[in-house]
Amino acid sequence: MIFVKAFIVGGLICVIGQILVDKTKLTPARILVSYVVSGVILEVFGLYQKLIDFCGAGASIPLSGFGCTLAKGVKKAVEEDGFLGIFTGGLTASAAGIAAALIFSLIAAIIFKPKPNS
Prior knowledge:
It is a single chain. The protein has 118 residues and is an all-alpha fold. It contains 6 helices and no strands. The relative contact order is 0.11.
């Protein structure tokens, strides 16, 4: 059942993004940033973790889940390190995901040999 919940919630998040692309003049970059910020805001109020508990990866994988991870990291770092945690917490919490994205991008660039546009 968790797979169905993940599919539905993740799909709804994607549908909202597609509607924003089709019906507004927002650029894709602004939509992506709004997803990250919405994840942070929902986590601040304690709502995003409830969504993750309900549907698992359907909420934790999209960009709003990245925002949630940043907020959790900052909260934990502030509790441990004080004011300095504001600057280090988000990067510490998301370091594994960022590193994986860089490594897989490098591997894809090596394998597929991108060509310049003519």
